[in-house]
Amino acid sequence: MDKRKENGGHSTKALGIDKRKNKYLHLLEEASTDEEIVSVIKNLKLIASAGNDVQAIRLFLEYYLGKPKETIETTNINFDAEKLSQEEIKLIKDSLDKNY
């Protein structure tokens, strides 16, 4: 039986103040009107479309469309796992443990 429920569930929020949020976010919200934000976005779109500013293009598209999902390339390699040495198996295991 999964005991995580008894330890606060699946939440990653800290009790009290959520430290993942920008502490200045409320100040930005108070200092900006909806019209100003729309103006900034339109200016970013103009910068992105006017020239070859790849960073501006990327930023605009990430906010508009969302960040693209990362994909993992897999190759279909046919090999006989029984032919691997213990050292090769350990290297593969260590690499997987390190990266995942």
Give me some keywords for this one.
100 residues, mainly alpha
Could you explain the architecture of this structure?
This protein has helices at residues 25-31, 34-50, 54-65, 86-99. The chain has four helices and no strands. It has 100 residues and is mainly α. The chain has a domain at 16-68. The model has no long low-confidence stretch (mean pLDDT 76).
Percent in helix = 40-55%
Task: State the total count of DSSP E strands.
Answer: 0
* Binned strand content: under 5%
Uncertain segments of ≥5 residues (pLDDT<50)? none
Distance between the termini: 24 Å
Record the SSE blueprint.
Elements: H1 25-31, H2 34-50, H3 54-65, H4 86-99
Helix pairs in contact: 2-3
Task: Write a brief structural summary.
The protein is mostly helical. The chain has helices at 25-31, 34-50, 54-65, 86-99.
